[in-house]
Design a protein that fits this description.
Helix content is 0%, strand content 59%. It contains no helices and 11 strands. The strands form 2 sheets. Strands 2, 4, 5, 6, 9, 10 and 11 form a 7-stranded mixed beta sheet that branches. The chain has a 4-stranded antiparallel beta sheet with strand order 1-3-8-7, with no helix packed on it. The N and C termini lie far apart (37 Å).
Length: 119
């Protein structure tokens, strides 16, 4: 499974960005997907997760009410709509996919996309 993120950039506080994560390869094996972020000097943290059908989602408390995770399985793409962005949202955002293939679970990661929110 290969994951490619896009949509990051520089935005002012209060603005919006939409991240995309395109999956390819053994996509039939993908189950849950999620977005994580890592700010300089900090550990990678969970932002949001979504189940295989898109009907169940969970968010970090810090982004609840501002971010929305979704997925379009027909397009093999996951999204993160980020509204009301704050400077503390500045980080590299990573796409993650949990898959089961070759009789074992696997965690896949994208290369990351930078999000910078200026005050």
């Amino acid at each position: 499974v290969q994951l490619v993120e896009s949509g990051g950039g520089l935005v002012q506080a209060g603005g919006s960005l939409r991240l995309s994560c395109a999956a390819s390869g053994r996509i039939f094996s993908i189950n849950n997907m999620g977005w994580y972020r890592q700010a300089p000097g900090k550990q990678r943290e969970l932002v949001a997760v979504i189940n295989i059908g898109g009907g169940s989602t969970n968010y970090a408390d810090s982004v609840k009410g501002r971010f929305t995770i979704s997925r379009d399985n027909a397009k093999n793409t996951m999204y993160l709509q980020m509204n009301s962005l704050k400077p503390e949202d500045t980080a590299v955002y990573y796409c993650n996919a949990w898959a089961y293939n070759d009789f074992a679970p696997h965690d896949y990661w994208g290369q990351g996309t930078q999000v910078t929110v200026s005050s």
